[in-house]
């Protein structure tokens, strides 16, 4: 993962959870590994993966989503922006070509998630994995003002 896009491990996430999250994002992006194959390869049951410690844990799920955004390349972002524009243009037409758009969105869901995270941050919505990083109201205020200026 790109060092400029490192996501700090949030409190409440163990070292093992952080390690598996990073591995999952990397392997999912590189080879499209399924959850079942990933769990089998790393000695974790799918029940555990989908349970309270992992995917049902909002902090872990948010952290996993944020990590997914770190592997999105500039080319993928650019392609997503082009398709997003096409979707908006096609939304008013009856012959929308939905199958082609669905195929893209299914294959580039990590790009869609990264875009959603960016829009949420622009709106001041803090992802679960980042909650608790600010201790005072003044720190939160400074962070929001920095985002508005940036």
Automatic annotation (TrEMBL):
It comes from the Bacteria. This is PhBC6A51 family helix-turn-helix protein. It comes from Fictibacillus iocasae.
């Amino acid at each position: 993962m790109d060092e400029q896009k490192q996501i700090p491990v949030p409190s409440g996430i163990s070292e093992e959870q952080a390690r598996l999250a990073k591995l999952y994002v990397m392997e999912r992006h590189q080879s499209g590994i399924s959850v079942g194959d990933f769990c089998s390869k790393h000695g974790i049951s799918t029940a555990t993966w989908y349970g309270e410690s992992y995917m049902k844990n909002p902090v872990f799920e948010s952290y996993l989503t944020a990590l997914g955004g770190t592997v999105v390349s500039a080319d993928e972002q650019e392609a997503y922006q082009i398709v997003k524009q096409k979707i908006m243009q096609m939304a008013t037409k009856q012959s929308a070509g939905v199958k082609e758009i669905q195929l893209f969105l299914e294959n580039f869901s990590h790009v869609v998630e990264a875009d959603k995270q960016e829009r949420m941050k622009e709106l001041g919505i803090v992802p679960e994995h980042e909650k608790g990083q600010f201790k005072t109201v003044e720190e939160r205020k400074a962070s929001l003002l920095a985002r508005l200026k940036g």
